[in-house]
Design brief:
Oligomer: heterodimer
Shape of chain A: globular
Structural class of chain A: mainly beta
Largest interface: A-B, 27 and 28 residues
Number of strands of chain B: 11
Number of strands of chain A: 11
Largest sheet of chain B: 6 strands, mixed
Radius of gyration of chain A: 14 Å
Helix content of chain A: under 10%
Structural class of chain B: mainly beta
Strand content of chain A: over 45%
Order of helices and strands of chain A: EEEEEEEEEEE
Distance between the termini of chain A: 37 Å
Radius of gyration of chain B: 13 Å
Chain lengths: 116, 111
């Protein structure tokens, strides 16, 4: 059973460029959340997608956008990159309406973005 | 003040020690409490999940929640070098499936 897969694992961009990160959720999961984890910090919630729509959004600017496809996979796009966008970007999948398993997220290994 | 506070450490202990990791929080609406383990260069993985106050035990791991004090703990018995990782507490009010994370505590268990 494949877990959450993310690509690319590492990438380097320069300020002002745009980046697209990709995520395939765990088999059977229908909800994808994206997190940003700066060095030495905990994951910060960016947004969550369910049924191809953004369901909730954290405190991130509009430069951060996303998409969910009919097969539940997802993309995170960041425009006009800033040095401060350098971080590990984590994708987490879950199953909506799963009752007592609230908060049980399955994370991928992340995409490490460096902005120069 | 952050919603979830967690000492970043590092916490260094000898093999076999009992480890205590803690978080405090300010949002009284939190009802679901989790501990995630994150190895270097990996994504977090769920270790323990607790609803409301009380204790939960799973092998060498025990999670405690004290909602009156807004304080949660994770105890690791007979710690092993393989337990060396960053431990993230996380909590959620319920229904959103979007937990708020602490910054993580780095644990080093040396042989």
């Amino acid at each position: 059973d494949a877990g959450v897969t993310q690509s690319p694992t590492h990438l380097i961009k320069t300020r002002g460029q745009q980046v697209t990160l990709r995520c395939s959720p765990k088999s059977g999961h229908d909800t994808v959340s994206w997190y940003q984890q700066a060095l030495g910090q905990g994951p910060q919630f960016i947004f969550q997608y369910y049924e191809e729509e953004e369901r909730q959004r954290g405190n991130f600017p509009d430069r951060f956008s996303g998409h969910q496809f009919p097969n539940y996979s997802s993309e995170l796009n960041v425009n006009a990159l800033l040095l401060g966008d350098s971080a590990l970007y984590l994708c987490a999948s879950s199953l909506a309406g799963r009752g007592s398993n609230t908060g049980e997220l399955f994370f991928g290994e992340g995409s490490r973005l460096t902005v120069l | 003040q952050k919603e979830v506070e967690q000492d970043p450490g590092p916490l260094s202990v000898p093999e076999g020690a009992i480890v205590s990791l803690n978080c405090t929080y300010s949002n009284s609406a939190f009802q679901y409490f989790m501990w995630y383990r994150q190895y270097s260069r990996k994504g977090p993985e769920l270790l323990m999940y607790t609803y409301s106050s009380g204790n939960k035990e799973d092998g060498r791991f025990t999670a405690q929640v004290d909602k009156s004090s807004k304080y949660i703990s994770l105890f690791i018995r007979d710690s092993q070098p393989s337990d060396s990782a960053t431990y993230l507490c996380a909590m959620e009010s319920g229904g959103s499936y979007i937990p708020t994370f602490g910054r993580g505590t780095s644990l080093i268990v040396h042989p």
